[in-house]
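Predict structure. Chain length: 238.
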Amino acid sequence: MTGLETHSGIWEMVANTGPMVKLILALLFFLSVFSWAIILYKLNLLRKIEKETSSLYDLFWKGRDLKEMSRALKDYSFTPLSRIFKEVYEEGAAFMENPQTAQSSLPGGVDYLRRIAKKTAAAERSAMEMSINFLATTGNTAPFIGLFGTVWGIMNTFRSIGARGGANLAVVGPGISEALIATAMGLFAAIPAVIGYNYILSRIDRISTEMDGFSTDLVNLIAKQSGAPVHLTKETEV
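Prediction complete.
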């Protein structure tokens, strides 16, 4: 059997399914399409984020000139490090210029800058995770939606057998094979969604680790330049 004949047979089985199974197949098809759209969009976005994150981190450790970095942020629109730097630097600039005045005006001093960095990093992670819950939902529900379509199709097949008063494999086989298409479609939608979700989440975790490290390094550098006592741990030294 050629590939063309196989595809023709599949489409013929889909055409012969009942209205409920057709509706379920359409739902699973759209879940699959939206899942692939999210996966491709997120992978492209994460590639840009990772490239800019690496570049900005290198710039930070190369010169440690915060004013120069502040001017360069316009070239780093994707990486969350630019937002973390912007939020922390706006508060930290006054701290570096006059530590005593800033210490009295900023609640908690350096700890306040750490809280700003942590809050900004959390917001950036939430932005990166936006829409990927759809992948998890698709991965969890699509197999059961497909199974429901299969059960519904098999019920109709046995109803037809009862109406005829008897059946053989030649009569039952086509109906059952048509019903099983729903299960196959459910797996077709679910498997890429689960793989995509786990892979994207692992890359977001790596970026989050970079954000935490950058936040610590940035706050420690501001504290050091302001003259405040701060201990740079081994993890924050280069």
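Summary: Residues 229-238 have pLDDT under 50 and may be disordered.
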